[in-house]
Amino acid sequence: MRKIYADAESALEGLTFDGMTVMSGGFGLCGIPENLIAALRDTGVKALTVISNNAGVDGFGLGQLLETRQIAKMISSYVGENKEFERQYLAGELQLEFNPQGTLAERIRAGGAGIPAFFTATGVGTLVAEGKEVRTFDGRDYVMETGLVADLSIVKAWKADERGNLVFRKTARNFNPMMATAGKVTVVEVEEIVPTGSLDPDAIHTPGVYVDRIIKGTFEKRIEQRTIRIRETA
Amino acid sequence: MRKIYADAESALEGLTFDGMTVMSGGFGLCGIPENLIAALRDTGVKALTVISNNAGVDGFGLGQLLETRQIAKMISSYVGENKEFERQYLAGELQLEFNPQGTLAERIRAGGAGIPAFFTATGVGTLVAEGKEVRTFDGRDYVMETGLVADLSIVKAWKADERGNLVFRKTARNFNPMMATAGKVTVVEVEEIVPTGSLDPDAIHTPGVYVDRIIKGTFEKRIEQRTIRIRETA
Amino acid sequence: MPRTREQLAERAAQELQDGFYVNLGIGIPTLVANYIPAGMEVTLQSENGMLGMGPFPYDEDVDPDLINAGKQTITEIPESAYFSSADSFAMIRGGHINLSILGAMEVAENGDIANWMIPGKLVKGMGGAMDLVAGVKRVVVVMEHANKHGQSKVLKACTLPLTGTGVVSRIITDLCVFDVKPGGAGLELIELAEGVTLDEVAARTEAAYSISQTLKAAA
Amino acid sequence: MPRTREQLAERAAQELQDGFYVNLGIGIPTLVANYIPAGMEVTLQSENGMLGMGPFPYDEDVDPDLINAGKQTITEIPESAYFSSADSFAMIRGGHINLSILGAMEVAENGDIANWMIPGKLVKGMGGAMDLVAGVKRVVVVMEHANKHGQSKVLKACTLPLTGTGVVSRIITDLCVFDVKPGGAGLELIELAEGVTLDEVAARTEAAYSISQTLKAAA
Questions:
Q1: Phi-psi map region of A33: left, alpha, beta (phi>0 left; psi -120 to 50 alpha)
Q2: Closest by Cβ to C48, choosing from A120, A171, A229
Q3: What is the pLDDT confidence band of residue C219, given thresholds at 50, 70 and 90?
Q4: 20 to 30 A from A152, CA-CA: which of C15, C182, D50, D148?
Q5: pLDDT digits over B28-85, tens only?
Q6: Hey, how many other C-beta atoms are within 10 angstroms of the C-beta on A21?
Q7: Is A197 exposed, middle or buried (0-12, 13-18, 19+ CB in 10 A)?
Q8: Count of domains for chain D
């Protein structure tokens, strides 16, 4: 039970400092660590570099940390849904580094896997490759990208056992498993904490070695684009 | 049902040629594609380069392909359990490239993931790094290793559905999932073929996109080192 | 008459082949899913981490944990499998997806594509577009022939920052279809939309192109 | 008296800490699992693809799909998780395993280790040893002080092909325990096995070493 904390606030205790780098899981608003983002805001920590595929929306997800101007820099692939983000960025208050989504995912995976750099064809011949080494393998050009690590990773999973083994649900998995591996400290919020031994050991997505602290959260799970089909009636 | 073949022989039809590179899953004798190795032997294909963590034992697993001298070169991390291997190697009949086990696993993963090269600290300052680029990142030296692909990957899984989604069992997973991604063609043998929709989509280890052909095999599952504890009687 | 959005999607669906694994971009490409021929086995990939994407859910089945790369709620089907975004882009980067159908702002004679950034305007990011064009085996662009100012989007050279270089294999527009010949050999006009003339294409296309000997009017 | 194999394993078990994730090499290191103190939470990793390794099975529970990196049949326990060998070595290379306890043929003053190859003899391969010494946070070597010819295995410089350079933090032998000081600062003798004298260590050690001010005889 050493890894289980009472709430998001206590789970972040002693882990935050100004200027730190934080990875935050999720794709859009799907699978984001809602509870830990709010708790991170409440710590008042400043000048964060946040690595996250997206930047939330106004007032929800990372949008909450933008509102309070706690973020100095974002490393993301797409930030389209956030007016406050736009405003700060256009005003020069916020630094932004765009990474192609797959390069971002692989940089995080590499960081967690002890790989300081790798080559990819993604972005060759584009702005993304500027200032980076380009090398030819087997007649094709590839750009060198570096691994990413963070001082803290905040992650949302579906279930955890008491030893920190994690299972994700559907497309809420997204960036969460890699980020769990790439944080010097990884804090996870889940919908359910189950007794050790109740998860199928063949179906664990993130082994407990990557998980330092766990909380059971409460979730709004806001939907960005509710698209439905209409049931045809007879 | 397009991916399901009647037997190992028909599943390899049209896929083999002399001098080809084959990846073969398994660790020791655990999780090896027994049926496809035997069928590969029966094709009579020659001068194979085989990428496999180990080389089987005399008369079983890849040992069968060594006996018939169909292998020209092995890329492996450990080949300790095979007298015929020793004989051919010492006689200069067999080429051998040793890779550290983790580097081998990552080279295969990289090959399947479109990554032509990556850096690792493994092997720096050893024979493994000779002739390879060494580069310093953040004050530590790393050696550049390249991705591996194969003309054919033969893989052993526990269950497949008709669309090729795979599930592995316990430590029989080992090198199989990466090899499934790194073959130009991937042929899989399983213990059971289940109807599409009966595997938990959150618990699929290898999505069907990586699987070209599937057979239901029969398995001896030989044990290399049967270690047991004695039940204390009252 | 130029093709409508639906007709563009319908034409793009002719690029599908039985057994294909396909990634569809946002916008018109998403509509292609509605035109998969009956009996054809096509598996849709969503780059956030899903293979085997089903249709939009009924209202009562909406699941916030189940969205596509356009952040729309979707459903799973019997062959669905989920995986991480790293595994998803390993699949894309490694060349395991047969076909990507994408929109574009500009495409050039040599297969260059620009679809993520307009200098001076707010940039939202490239998302997975650069990975898709670099990694997927075949990239087909579906787009309006001209931009809203009436200017050709099929160009000698892209003017906007690129998404990828030399990656597009085919361009399907509301007027016609071009093949991008391999090795920088330029464009070839291979189809006209119904009622569209060669002169019309010539007038509205900035890029140079050859005309296929088997040029046919679309059915 | 020099330590027996079992005593070496028992001493090595003192390196364990509550909450540690540990990889044990083949041979004496494997025996360390028998000396994990009661109540201490130590999770064993097997580099073929398992975290949370249990003891050997009872005869009727042997499962050919469940082996450790030494290819021995083992069992699972409640916290067990399986993963691929790529994921396993990502865990090792990424520095997520706290401690590796390994055997060696030679260790040098600077922390170099050789444990996989004797030139002129048949080489079986390095397996995962190079990944473990390069990746795991702390590497402790457990070995006999001398080889079968009576020569010191604790050397000024390794003579055999290396497994890793500057990676060993501590050397536990049947005679004593050395710390490898960081930054190439050499060896420090920190413990003597019961009944072993300083002179005995001096006589049997080729490497130079300093003697800890707090040197204590092992209990």
A1: beta
A2: A171
A3: very low
A4: D50
A5: 999 999 999 999 999 999 999 999 999 999 999 999 999 999 999 999 999 977 888 8
A6: 18
A7: middle
A8: 1
Angle CA A210–A211–A213, to nearest 5: 160
Q: Which of A103, A109, A119 to probe by mutation at the B interface, max B CB count within 10 Å?
A: A119
Identify which of A133, A207, A195 has the alpha carbon closest to the alpha carbon of residue A167: A207
B110 touches chain A (CB under 8 A): yes
Structure tokens at D68: 């450790």
Residues A29, A2: contact at Cβ < 8 Å? no
Q: Which helix (H) or strand (E) holds C102?
A: strand C99-102
CA nearest neighbour of C95 among B147, D90, A145: B147
Asked whether C89 and C50 are in contact (CB, 8 A), the reply is no
Distance (Å) from the alpha carbon of B88 to chain C's nearest alpha carbon: 35
Query: What is the torsional sign of CA A57, A63, A69, A70?
Result: negative
**HSE (CB half, 13 Å, CA atoms) of B17?**
6
Judged by DSSP in three states, A160 sits in: strand
Amino acid at A213: R
For B122-149, write each residue's pLDDT tens digit: 999 999 999 999 999 999 999 999 999 9
* From B2, B113, B210, residue closest to C93, measured CB to CB: B113
ipTM confidence score: 0.97
Contact B106, D86 (CB under 8 A): yes
Per-residue pLDDT reduced to its tens digit, C171-191? 999 999 999 999 889 999 999
Q: Which residue type sits at C218?
A: A
The reply to whether residue C83 touches residue A77, judged by beta carbons under 8 angstroms, is: no
- Helical segments of B48-191, H only: 63-67, 83-90, 101-112, 176-182
**D47, D106, D109, D191: which is the annotated catalytic residue?**
D47
User: Model's pTM, two decimal places?
Assistant: 0.97
Distance CA B14, CA A175 (A): 39
**Dihedrals phi, psi of A221, to nearest 5 degrees:** 50, 60
Cβ-based neighbours of B159, under 8 Å, separated by 6 or more:
B166, B167, B190, B191, B192, B193, B194, B199
Active site residue D188: no
Whether B120 has its CB under 8 Å from any CB of chain A: the answer is yes
Task: Using CB atoms within 10 Å of the CB of residue C187, give its burial: 0 to 12 exposed, 13 to 18 middle, 19+ buried.
Answer: buried
Give the CATH number for residue C80.
3.40.1080.10
Cα C36 to Cα C39: distance, rounded to the nearest angstrom: 9
Domain that holds residue D141: 5-217
Domains present along chain B, CATH in parentheses: 8-115+148-216 (3.40.1080.10)
User: Which residues in chain A touch residue B173, judged by CB atoms under 8 angstroms apart?
Assistant: 202
Q: With an 8 Å Cβ cutoff, are C89 and A225 in contact? A: no
Q: What letter does residue B229 receive in the DSSP assignment?
A: B
Tell me which chains share at least 3 CB pairs under 8 Å with chain D: A, B
Residues of B in contact with D85 (CB under 8 A): 27, 53, 101-102, 105, 173-175, 178
The two three-digit tokens of residue C114, written as one number: 């620009």
Q: For position D219, what pLDDT does the model report? A: 44
Q: Which of A154, A117, A122, A121 is nearest to A136 (CA)?
A: A121
Among A2, A181, A204, beta carbon nearest to D94: A181
